[in-house]
Amino acid sequence: MPQWLLNQMMRAYRKKDRRQIRLLNDCWFFYRTKEEETHR
């Protein structure tokens, strides 16, 4: 996981910002599937 994403995740969890957590989670899954497609 990129450091910038990890930092934002930690901040969102500390603030208990559910909307932000959900958004970052979606970003992470999107990023991961993109990475998997490029490595195939």
How many distinct domains? 1
SS element count, helices: 2
Q: Pick out the low-confidence regions.
A: none
Q: So what's the overall shape?
A: elongated
Distance between the first and last residues' Cα: 19 Å
H/E order of the elements?
HH
Give the C-alpha Rg. Answer: 11 Å
How many strands, which pairing sense, and closed or not: the largest β-sheet? none
Look at the helices and sheets and give the structural class.
mainly alpha
Helix content: over 70%
Number of strands: 0
Percent of sequence in beta strands: under 5%
Average pLDDT? 90
InterPro entries: CmpA
Protein name: Cortex morphogenetic protein CmpA
Organism: Paenibacillus antri
Q: Which secondary structure elements does this structure contain, and how are they paired or packed?
A:
Blueprint: H1 3-15, H2 18-38
Report a brief summary of the structure.
This protein is an all-alpha fold and 40 residues long. The protein has one domain (3-38).
List keywords for this structure.
40 residues, mainly alpha, 0% strand, elongated
Give an account of the 3D structure:
With 40 residues, the chain is mostly helical. The relative contact order is 0.15. It has one domain (3-38). It has helices at 3-15, 18-38. The two termini are 19 Å apart.
